[in-house]
Amino acid sequence: MSLLLQAQGLNKRFQSVDALDDVSLTVSRREILAVVGESGSGKSTLLATLAGLQSADSGRITYYGADRPQDIGDMDEMQLRRLQRTQWGFIHQNARAALRLDVSAGGNIGERLMMNGARDYGEIRETAARWLDEVEIGRERIDEMPLNFSGGMLQRLQIAATLVTSPELVFMDEPTTGLDVSVQARVLDLIRNLVHKLDVATIIVTHDLGVARLLADRTVVMQGGAIVEHGLTDQVLDDPQHPYTQLLVSSVLPS
Amino acid sequence: MISYNFAYLDEQTKRSIRRALLKAVAVPGWQIPFGSREMPLPYGWGTGGIQVTASVIGETDRLKVIDQGADDTTNAVAIASFFKRMTGVEITTHTADATIIQTRHRIPEHPLTENQIIVYQVPQPEPLWRLIPERPVAMRAHALGDYGTMYVKLYEDITRFGRVASAYEHPVMVGGCVLMSPSPIPAFDNPKMDRMPALQLFGAGRERRLYAVPPYTSVRSLDFADHPFHPGRADGTCSLCGSTTSYLDEIIMDDHGTRRFVCSDTDYCSERQDAKDTTP
Q: How far off is chain B from A101, nearest CA to CA, in Å?
């Protein structure tokens, strides 16, 4: 598998807290990487930094895109925006904050296309309809306002609105937290199917080890801003080596 | 007896506004902040337009003020008499005779010339404001020429109404690179802005922004490839002058829904009526 994203020696301090402490990781094409750890361990900071939403104090992030490797730190704002909205995607925990609730479902999906220069209404609408089918909302709801959608539907709409440009790499920040358990399962199932179907690499941040086990090829465990353990998901979860990982795994309630 | 400076504003204020106007002309469509002053009428009644007019008007100018196309509505009459008192310039209703035209919500039917300045009163200068509520974020979008978001509104229009339905304030691209609000003029008037020989100045008093479109600058209304921009006009004939091409106001005549159309541009309409009267 070929390399897609590489982070080397990322450091980030918030006043006295080390949010990122010499973090290095790689993601390959079509690979799903889970980042697990407790609240405050630096998972979300890591994700936002990798996605170019905030900058690290030191370290470098290299993206091996279609043509040539690019250092994220060297890009100007326009290049970064273009990358973020064509080849990358970001799925937020709170779909309500990420979507436009006063714009129809079709408009929400179409926004990313229009930002990338789509100027044909018929094509935009057809693509949006196809994606509504894809995420099991159904094309007949294309003109409805997301205001009327349930939490699970909103999250599925956000997934459609992100994947519509067929990105190569998607960042997900706790995409199923806050949904009830049955809805969680459905959204996870959808994510798993879509990322495999589209061959999109994914970095998913979660505190739910079950999500990591279900989706991820590899898992990294964070504590206090540092990566304490990494490896194949089954290996990390079934045979944890680091005391903190052992604690995490043992604290999962038996189902 | 208190006496006011020519055109009400003091000279330093006028100079500062002129400097802002020069910047605005240099970067067509770009919003320039300016030190908007307290004016003797409420925000929303044309404080921005009045300050721009006051900064460019001279003793030899002839001023025309219109509100929704009409010379005889409250807002137009009040502003015209204000300038009459504060400058002593000649007030005219004839588009062709005016050197400065201050307008709210219309562009006159009569084509403007190189010798004229049109000043628009603008309530909201930021075309992205409904889509991007945070001004700094909107300014970044302008700085990067990142206007894809604007199409979300057009998409919603077509979805809801079957066509690009912004009947007024339809956003335009100026000089191919800056997104601009044309002020709340009807979409019907948008094409008149394109390569207009007259200088177009825009003032937003409450928002403290002004902007400009220099003569002969391209102004293109946003649209989709398969839903081209359509300047809307009521399908009717002016019942006073018989015009079939001017922008029309609809007037309800009685409680039974009888209606008739008249030109929104009163000067254009009366000129056509006069011409009819003199022909045998």
A: 11
